[in-house]
Amino acid sequence: MTAPASVQPTPRAAHPLKSLRLPAFWILGVVLVVCTVRLLDLLRSPLARYPVATTVAVLLFALYAVPFWLFISAMDFLEREPPLLLATAFAWGAMVSTTSAMPGNRALLDLTAKLVSPEFAMAWGPAIASPVIEELIKALGFVMIVLVARKQINSVLDGMVYGALIGLGFQVVENIFYALNSVEMANSGDQVGPVIATFFLRGFLAGLWSHTLFSALAGAGIAWFLVRTDRSLWARWGGLAAGLGLAWGIHFIWNSPLLLDGLGQQGVGLLVGLLLKGLPALLLAMGLLFVARHREANFYVDYLARLRDPRVATPEELHTLRHGHLRADARRYGKLRAGKAGRRAVRELQTAQARLAVELSRAPVPAWDDPILAHALREVLNQRRRLLFLAHEEAVASPMRPAVPRVVVLVTTTAIVLCVLIWSAIEAMHGA
Protein backbone atom coordinates (compact mmCIF):
# COMPACT_ATOMS: atom_id res chain seq x y z
CA MET A 1 0.00 0.00 0.00
CA THR A 2 1.45 3.35 -0.95
CA ALA A 3 1.03 6.38 1.25
CA PRO A 4 -1.52 8.93 0.06
CA ALA A 5 -0.81 12.62 -0.15
CA SER A 6 0.57 14.11 3.02
CA VAL A 7 1.19 10.78 4.82
CA GLN A 8 4.13 8.40 5.12
CA PRO A 9 4.26 5.09 7.00
CA THR A 10 5.22 5.71 10.60
CA PRO A 11 8.67 4.31 11.36
CA ARG A 12 9.39 2.73 14.72
CA ALA A 13 10.48 5.40 17.16
CA ALA A 14 14.17 5.42 17.94
CA HIS A 15 15.35 4.60 21.44
CA PRO A 16 15.32 7.84 23.49
CA LEU A 17 18.99 7.43 24.45
CA LYS A 18 19.95 7.69 20.79
CA SER A 19 18.87 11.34 20.88
CA LEU A 20 21.77 12.03 23.21
CA ARG A 21 24.13 11.31 20.33
CA LEU A 22 22.61 14.04 18.17
CA PRO A 23 24.30 17.48 18.22
CA ALA A 24 20.88 19.02 17.56
CA PHE A 25 19.61 17.57 20.87
CA TRP A 26 22.29 19.35 22.88
CA ILE A 27 21.93 22.57 20.89
CA LEU A 28 18.17 22.50 21.51
CA GLY A 29 18.65 21.87 25.22
CA VAL A 30 21.19 24.67 25.66
CA VAL A 31 19.05 27.15 23.72
CA LEU A 32 15.96 26.30 25.78
CA VAL A 33 17.84 26.72 29.07
CA VAL A 34 19.45 30.02 28.06
CA CYS A 35 16.20 31.48 26.78
CA THR A 36 14.27 30.29 29.84
CA VAL A 37 16.75 32.13 32.06
CA ARG A 38 16.39 35.18 29.82
CA LEU A 39 12.58 35.06 30.04
CA LEU A 40 12.63 34.79 33.83
CA ASP A 41 14.99 37.75 33.94
CA LEU A 42 12.57 39.80 31.82
CA LEU A 43 9.71 38.90 34.18
CA ARG A 44 11.67 39.71 37.33
CA SER A 45 11.19 43.47 37.17
CA PRO A 46 7.39 43.50 36.57
CA LEU A 47 6.97 40.80 39.21
CA ALA A 48 8.79 42.98 41.75
CA ARG A 49 6.79 46.11 40.89
CA TYR A 50 3.40 44.54 40.14
CA PRO A 51 3.31 41.14 41.87
CA VAL A 52 -0.48 40.77 41.81
CA ALA A 53 -0.95 41.92 38.22
CA THR A 54 1.95 39.78 37.00
CA THR A 55 0.67 36.68 38.79
CA VAL A 56 -2.85 37.19 37.45
CA ALA A 57 -1.55 37.71 33.91
CA VAL A 58 0.50 34.51 34.00
CA LEU A 59 -2.34 32.44 35.47
CA LEU A 60 -5.00 33.91 33.21
CA PHE A 61 -3.15 33.31 29.96
CA ALA A 62 -1.94 29.91 31.15
CA LEU A 63 -5.57 28.89 31.67
CA TYR A 64 -6.42 30.47 28.32
CA ALA A 65 -3.89 28.13 26.68
CA VAL A 66 -5.49 24.96 28.07
CA PRO A 67 -8.39 24.58 25.58
CA PHE A 68 -6.05 25.42 22.71
CA TRP A 69 -3.58 22.76 23.91
CA LEU A 70 -6.33 20.14 24.26
CA PHE A 71 -7.65 20.89 20.79
CA ILE A 72 -4.21 20.81 19.17
CA SER A 73 -3.08 17.63 20.91
CA ALA A 74 -6.33 15.91 19.89
CA MET A 75 -5.99 16.90 16.22
CA ASP A 76 -3.99 13.75 15.50
CA PHE A 77 -6.10 10.99 17.07
CA LEU A 78 -4.74 7.97 15.25
CA GLU A 79 -1.01 8.67 15.54
CA ARG A 80 -0.45 10.50 18.82
CA GLU A 81 2.68 12.59 19.27
CA PRO A 82 4.97 12.09 22.30
CA PRO A 83 3.97 14.46 25.14
CA LEU A 84 7.60 15.44 25.78
CA LEU A 85 8.04 16.50 22.16
CA LEU A 86 4.78 18.47 22.27
CA ALA A 87 6.01 20.24 25.41
CA THR A 88 9.31 20.98 23.67
CA ALA A 89 7.47 22.64 20.80
CA PHE A 90 5.46 24.77 23.22
CA ALA A 91 8.61 25.66 25.16
CA TRP A 92 10.39 26.79 22.00
CA GLY A 93 7.56 29.17 21.19
CA ALA A 94 7.26 30.43 24.77
CA MET A 95 10.93 30.72 25.69
CA VAL A 96 13.04 30.95 22.55
CA SER A 97 10.79 32.67 20.03
CA THR A 98 9.62 35.41 22.38
CA THR A 99 13.00 36.34 23.86
CA SER A 100 14.70 36.22 20.45
CA ALA A 101 11.98 38.15 18.62
CA MET A 102 12.02 41.13 20.99
CA PRO A 103 15.46 42.49 20.01
CA GLY A 104 14.99 41.35 16.42
CA ASN A 105 11.73 43.27 16.03
CA ARG A 106 13.24 46.41 17.54
CA ALA A 107 16.24 46.23 15.22
CA LEU A 108 14.12 45.79 12.09
CA LEU A 109 11.74 48.57 13.16
CA ASP A 110 14.69 50.93 13.64
CA LEU A 111 16.07 49.93 10.25
CA THR A 112 12.69 50.56 8.60
CA ALA A 113 12.50 54.03 10.20
CA LYS A 114 15.97 54.89 8.91
CA LEU A 115 15.49 53.51 5.40
CA VAL A 116 11.99 54.92 4.84
CA SER A 117 10.63 57.23 7.53
CA PRO A 118 9.57 57.15 11.19
CA GLU A 119 5.94 57.64 10.12
CA PHE A 120 6.07 54.65 7.78
CA ALA A 121 7.71 52.55 10.48
CA MET A 122 5.00 53.56 12.93
CA ALA A 123 2.21 52.53 10.55
CA TRP A 124 3.67 49.57 8.67
CA GLY A 125 6.65 48.56 10.81
CA PRO A 126 4.77 45.92 12.86
CA ALA A 127 3.43 44.37 9.65
CA ILE A 128 6.96 44.14 8.24
CA ALA A 129 9.13 43.35 11.24
CA SER A 130 6.98 40.91 13.21
CA PRO A 131 6.17 38.44 10.40
CA VAL A 132 9.78 38.37 9.20
CA ILE A 133 11.43 37.90 12.59
CA GLU A 134 8.80 35.94 14.48
CA GLU A 135 7.77 33.50 11.75
CA LEU A 136 11.42 32.78 10.99
CA ILE A 137 12.28 31.96 14.61
CA LYS A 138 9.15 29.87 15.12
CA ALA A 139 9.82 27.93 11.92
CA LEU A 140 13.36 27.32 13.14
CA GLY A 141 11.84 25.68 16.24
CA PHE A 142 10.04 23.14 14.06
CA VAL A 143 13.26 22.49 12.15
CA MET A 144 14.99 21.74 15.46
CA ILE A 145 12.27 19.23 16.33
CA VAL A 146 12.78 17.60 12.94
CA LEU A 147 16.52 17.34 13.58
CA VAL A 148 15.94 15.78 17.01
CA ALA A 149 12.99 13.50 16.18
CA ARG A 150 12.69 13.14 12.41
CA LYS A 151 10.84 9.81 12.73
CA GLN A 152 7.91 11.56 14.40
CA ILE A 153 7.20 13.76 11.38
CA ASN A 154 5.40 11.60 8.84
CA SER A 155 2.44 13.71 7.73
CA VAL A 156 1.36 17.28 7.07
CA LEU A 157 -0.90 16.94 10.10
CA ASP A 158 2.16 16.35 12.31
CA GLY A 159 3.60 19.61 11.00
CA MET A 160 0.41 21.45 11.87
CA VAL A 161 0.38 20.00 15.39
CA TYR A 162 3.95 20.95 16.25
CA GLY A 163 3.71 24.29 14.47
CA ALA A 164 0.50 25.19 16.28
CA LEU A 165 2.03 24.39 19.67
CA ILE A 166 5.07 26.53 18.91
CA GLY A 167 2.73 29.36 17.99
CA LEU A 168 0.62 28.79 21.09
CA GLY A 169 3.67 29.09 23.34
CA PHE A 170 4.63 32.34 21.64
CA GLN A 171 1.08 33.66 21.80
CA VAL A 172 0.72 33.00 25.53
CA VAL A 173 3.99 34.67 26.56
CA GLU A 174 3.53 37.59 24.17
CA ASN A 175 0.08 38.25 25.63
CA ILE A 176 1.52 38.20 29.15
CA PHE A 177 3.98 40.92 28.19
CA TYR A 178 1.23 42.93 26.50
CA ALA A 179 -0.78 42.72 29.73
CA LEU A 180 2.19 43.87 31.82
CA ASN A 181 2.85 46.74 29.42
CA SER A 182 -0.76 47.82 29.79
CA VAL A 183 -0.33 47.87 33.59
CA GLU A 184 2.78 50.01 33.15
CA MET A 185 1.02 52.43 30.79
CA ALA A 186 -2.03 52.73 33.05
CA ASN A 187 0.28 54.09 35.76
CA SER A 188 -2.22 53.18 38.47
CA GLY A 189 -0.14 50.77 40.50
CA ASP A 190 -0.54 47.04 40.96
CA GLN A 191 -4.03 46.76 39.44
CA VAL A 192 -5.49 43.82 37.52
CA GLY A 193 -7.93 45.91 35.47
CA PRO A 194 -5.48 46.44 32.56
CA VAL A 195 -4.66 42.73 32.65
CA ILE A 196 -8.33 41.77 32.32
CA ALA A 197 -8.81 44.26 29.49
CA THR A 198 -5.78 42.88 27.65
CA PHE A 199 -7.06 39.35 28.20
CA PHE A 200 -10.30 40.15 26.40
CA LEU A 201 -8.71 42.24 23.69
CA ARG A 202 -5.80 39.89 22.94
CA GLY A 203 -7.67 36.69 23.75
CA PHE A 204 -10.94 37.20 21.91
CA LEU A 205 -10.07 39.87 19.36
CA ALA A 206 -6.98 38.15 18.03
CA GLY A 207 -6.75 34.76 19.72
CA LEU A 208 -8.42 32.67 17.02
CA TRP A 209 -6.25 33.92 14.18
CA SER A 210 -2.98 34.68 15.87
CA HIS A 211 0.36 32.90 16.21
CA THR A 212 -1.14 29.45 16.72
CA LEU A 213 -2.69 29.66 13.27
CA PHE A 214 0.35 31.29 11.61
CA SER A 215 2.75 28.64 12.86
CA ALA A 216 0.39 25.78 12.01
CA LEU A 217 0.50 26.85 8.37
CA ALA A 218 4.29 27.17 8.46
CA GLY A 219 4.57 23.73 10.04
CA ALA A 220 2.33 22.26 7.34
CA GLY A 221 4.61 23.70 4.65
CA ILE A 222 7.78 22.33 6.22
CA ALA A 223 6.17 18.92 6.79
CA TRP A 224 4.98 18.85 3.17
CA PHE A 225 8.57 19.34 2.03
CA LEU A 226 9.74 16.52 4.28
CA VAL A 227 7.12 13.85 3.66
CA ARG A 228 6.10 14.38 0.03
CA THR A 229 9.05 12.50 -1.40
CA ASP A 230 6.71 11.15 -4.08
CA ARG A 231 6.52 14.64 -5.59
CA SER A 232 9.15 16.48 -7.62
CA LEU A 233 11.64 18.66 -5.80
CA TRP A 234 10.00 21.73 -7.33
CA ALA A 235 6.61 20.70 -5.95
CA ARG A 236 8.11 20.12 -2.51
CA TRP A 237 9.81 23.51 -2.54
CA GLY A 238 6.52 25.01 -3.72
CA GLY A 239 4.65 23.50 -0.76
CA LEU A 240 7.30 24.78 1.62
CA ALA A 241 7.11 28.27 0.13
CA ALA A 242 3.31 28.20 0.26
CA GLY A 243 3.22 27.28 3.95
CA LEU A 244 5.81 29.84 5.00
CA GLY A 245 4.35 32.45 2.65
CA LEU A 246 0.83 32.00 4.03
CA ALA A 247 2.12 32.30 7.59
CA TRP A 248 3.99 35.50 6.71
CA GLY A 249 1.19 36.95 4.57
CA ILE A 250 -1.60 36.38 7.08
CA HIS A 251 0.59 37.78 9.86
CA PHE A 252 1.39 40.79 7.67
CA ILE A 253 -2.29 41.49 6.95
CA TRP A 254 -3.26 41.12 10.60
CA ASN A 255 -0.55 43.55 11.79
CA SER A 256 -1.10 46.01 8.96
CA PRO A 257 -3.13 49.22 9.34
CA LEU A 258 -5.66 47.88 6.84
CA LEU A 259 -9.17 48.04 8.31
CA LEU A 260 -7.62 49.47 11.48
CA ASP A 261 -10.90 51.23 12.28
CA GLY A 262 -13.00 48.41 10.91
CA LEU A 263 -16.00 49.56 8.90
CA GLY A 264 -16.96 52.30 11.30
CA GLN A 265 -20.20 52.14 13.24
CA GLN A 266 -18.25 51.57 16.46
CA GLY A 267 -18.58 48.04 17.87
CA VAL A 268 -20.37 46.32 15.00
CA GLY A 269 -18.13 47.92 12.39
CA LEU A 270 -14.98 46.95 14.23
CA LEU A 271 -16.25 43.41 14.66
CA VAL A 272 -16.94 43.10 10.93
CA GLY A 273 -13.52 44.56 10.14
CA LEU A 274 -11.79 42.09 12.43
CA LEU A 275 -13.71 39.20 10.91
CA LEU A 276 -12.74 40.34 7.41
CA LYS A 277 -9.06 40.33 8.40
CA GLY A 278 -9.01 37.16 10.45
CA LEU A 279 -11.85 34.85 9.42
CA PRO A 280 -10.54 33.93 5.92
CA ALA A 281 -7.24 32.82 7.46
CA LEU A 282 -9.03 30.78 10.10
CA LEU A 283 -11.23 29.08 7.49
CA LEU A 284 -8.19 28.34 5.35
CA ALA A 285 -6.35 26.72 8.25
CA MET A 286 -9.41 24.72 9.34
CA GLY A 287 -9.93 23.54 5.76
CA LEU A 288 -6.33 22.38 5.56
CA LEU A 289 -6.70 20.65 8.93
CA PHE A 290 -9.86 18.89 7.74
CA VAL A 291 -8.14 17.56 4.61
CA ALA A 292 -4.97 16.53 6.48
CA ARG A 293 -6.92 14.70 9.20
CA HIS A 294 -9.01 12.75 6.71
CA ARG A 295 -6.04 11.79 4.57
CA GLU A 296 -4.17 10.51 7.60
CA ALA A 297 -7.22 8.71 9.01
CA ASN A 298 -7.94 6.99 5.69
CA PHE A 299 -4.31 5.94 5.38
CA TYR A 300 -4.10 4.25 8.78
CA VAL A 301 -7.62 2.79 8.81
CA ASP A 302 -6.94 1.16 5.44
CA TYR A 303 -4.35 -1.01 7.18
CA LEU A 304 -7.03 -2.29 9.57
CA ALA A 305 -9.40 -2.84 6.66
CA ARG A 306 -6.83 -5.10 4.92
CA LEU A 307 -7.03 -7.54 7.85
CA ARG A 308 -10.70 -8.24 7.09
CA ASP A 309 -11.16 -9.34 10.70
CA PRO A 310 -14.38 -8.19 12.40
CA ARG A 311 -12.83 -8.96 15.78
CA VAL A 312 -10.33 -6.19 15.10
CA ALA A 313 -12.74 -3.76 13.44
CA THR A 314 -16.10 -4.27 11.79
CA PRO A 315 -16.90 -2.45 8.53
CA GLU A 316 -19.05 0.03 10.47
CA GLU A 317 -16.25 0.64 12.96
CA LEU A 318 -13.80 1.26 10.13
CA HIS A 319 -16.13 3.91 8.77
CA THR A 320 -16.48 5.43 12.24
CA LEU A 321 -12.71 5.58 12.79
CA ARG A 322 -12.28 7.65 9.62
CA HIS A 323 -14.33 10.56 11.00
CA GLY A 324 -13.70 12.48 14.20
CA HIS A 325 -17.33 13.40 14.80
CA LEU A 326 -18.41 9.77 14.37
CA ARG A 327 -15.78 8.62 16.87
CA ALA A 328 -17.20 11.08 19.39
CA ASP A 329 -20.76 9.97 18.60
CA ALA A 330 -19.74 6.35 19.13
CA ARG A 331 -18.46 7.18 22.61
CA ARG A 332 -21.71 8.94 23.45
CA TYR A 333 -23.69 5.98 22.11
CA GLY A 334 -21.64 3.65 24.29
CA LYS A 335 -22.52 5.73 27.33
CA LEU A 336 -26.19 5.72 26.35
CA ARG A 337 -26.26 1.93 26.14
CA ALA A 338 -23.85 0.92 28.93
CA GLY A 339 -23.24 4.00 31.06
CA LYS A 340 -19.81 5.44 31.79
CA ALA A 341 -18.25 2.00 31.47
CA GLY A 342 -19.60 1.78 27.93
CA ARG A 343 -18.18 5.15 26.98
CA ARG A 344 -14.79 4.21 28.43
CA ALA A 345 -14.81 0.83 26.69
CA VAL A 346 -15.57 2.40 23.30
CA ARG A 347 -12.85 5.00 23.78
CA GLU A 348 -10.27 2.40 24.76
CA LEU A 349 -11.19 0.14 21.85
CA GLN A 350 -10.80 3.06 19.45
CA THR A 351 -7.43 3.89 21.00
CA ALA A 352 -6.29 0.28 20.72
CA GLN A 353 -7.45 0.10 17.10
CA ALA A 354 -5.53 3.29 16.33
CA ARG A 355 -2.34 1.88 17.90
CA LEU A 356 -2.68 -1.33 15.93
CA ALA A 357 -3.20 0.64 12.71
CA VAL A 358 -0.02 2.62 13.30
CA GLU A 359 1.96 -0.54 14.06
CA LEU A 360 0.62 -2.15 10.88
CA SER A 361 1.79 0.86 8.88
CA ARG A 362 5.29 0.22 10.20
CA ALA A 363 5.20 -3.35 8.88
CA PRO A 364 2.95 -3.47 5.77
CA VAL A 365 3.36 -7.28 5.73
CA PRO A 366 2.10 -8.24 9.22
CA ALA A 367 4.54 -10.35 11.17
CA TRP A 368 2.54 -11.49 14.16
CA ASP A 369 5.61 -12.84 15.88
CA ASP A 370 6.73 -9.23 16.27
CA PRO A 371 6.15 -8.61 20.02
CA ILE A 372 5.04 -5.00 19.53
CA LEU A 373 2.55 -5.87 16.81
CA ALA A 374 1.31 -8.92 18.74
CA HIS A 375 0.79 -6.83 21.87
CA ALA A 376 -1.19 -4.23 19.89
CA LEU A 377 -3.43 -6.97 18.49
CA ARG A 378 -4.00 -8.53 21.92
CA GLU A 379 -4.98 -5.14 23.30
CA VAL A 380 -7.64 -4.74 20.59
CA LEU A 381 -9.03 -8.19 21.27
CA ASN A 382 -9.09 -7.57 25.02
CA GLN A 383 -10.99 -4.32 24.54
CA ARG A 384 -13.38 -6.11 22.17
CA ARG A 385 -14.17 -8.70 24.86
CA ARG A 386 -14.72 -5.91 27.36
CA LEU A 387 -17.19 -4.23 25.01
CA LEU A 388 -19.06 -7.49 24.40
CA PHE A 389 -19.23 -8.09 28.16
CA LEU A 390 -21.17 -4.83 28.39
CA ALA A 391 -23.60 -6.09 25.71
CA HIS A 392 -22.48 -3.39 23.31
CA GLU A 393 -21.42 -5.19 20.14
CA GLU A 394 -19.78 -2.42 18.12
CA ALA A 395 -18.04 0.91 18.70
CA VAL A 396 -20.22 2.78 16.24
CA ALA A 397 -22.33 5.91 16.26
CA SER A 398 -25.98 5.78 17.18
CA PRO A 399 -28.31 5.02 14.24
CA MET A 400 -30.58 7.71 15.69
CA ARG A 401 -27.92 10.43 15.74
CA PRO A 402 -29.03 13.92 14.61
CA ALA A 403 -28.98 14.70 10.91
CA VAL A 404 -26.73 17.69 11.66
CA PRO A 405 -23.54 16.49 13.39
CA ARG A 406 -23.10 17.75 16.93
CA VAL A 407 -19.73 19.19 15.98
CA VAL A 408 -21.44 21.54 13.52
CA VAL A 409 -23.84 22.71 16.21
CA LEU A 410 -20.97 23.12 18.67
CA VAL A 411 -18.81 25.09 16.23
CA THR A 412 -21.72 27.33 15.24
CA THR A 413 -22.66 27.99 18.87
CA THR A 414 -19.04 28.69 19.78
CA ALA A 415 -18.68 31.10 16.86
CA ILE A 416 -21.79 33.01 17.94
CA VAL A 417 -20.58 33.21 21.56
CA LEU A 418 -17.14 34.40 20.45
CA CYS A 419 -18.67 37.07 18.23
CA VAL A 420 -20.73 38.30 21.17
CA LEU A 421 -17.63 38.36 23.39
CA ILE A 422 -15.60 40.21 20.76
CA TRP A 423 -18.37 42.73 20.23
CA SER A 424 -18.70 43.22 24.01
CA ALA A 425 -14.95 43.74 24.32
CA ILE A 426 -14.99 46.33 21.53
CA GLU A 427 -17.93 48.15 23.09
CA ALA A 428 -16.18 48.15 26.48
CA MET A 429 -13.05 49.52 24.83
CA HIS A 430 -15.06 52.32 23.21
CA GLY A 431 -16.81 53.05 26.48
CA ALA A 432 -13.45 53.34 28.22
Beta strands, count: 0
The best one-word shape is: globular
Assembly classification: single chain
Give the overall pLDDT as a whole number.
84
Please mark out the parts with pLDDT under 50 across 5 or more consecutive residues, or reply none: 1-5
Task: Write a compact overview of the structure shown.
By secondary structure, the protein is mostly helical.
What does this structure look like?
This protein has 432 residues and is mainly α. It folds into two domains: 20-267, no CATH class; 308-401, no CATH class. Helices cover 76% and strands 0% of the residues. The protein is built from 13 helices and no strands. Helix 2 runs antiparallel to helix 5 (156-186), helix 4 packs across helix 7 and helix 5 (156-186) runs antiparallel to helix 6 (193-204). Residues 1-5 have low confidence and may be disordered.
Write the layout of secondary structure elements.
Elements: H1 23-49, H2 51-73, H3 83-115, H4 118-148, H5 156-186, H6 193-204, H7 211-227, H8 233-255, H9 266-307, H10 315-321, H11 324-362, H12 371-389, H13 406-431
Structural descriptors:
432 residues, mainly alpha, 2 domains, 76% helix, globular, disordered N terminus
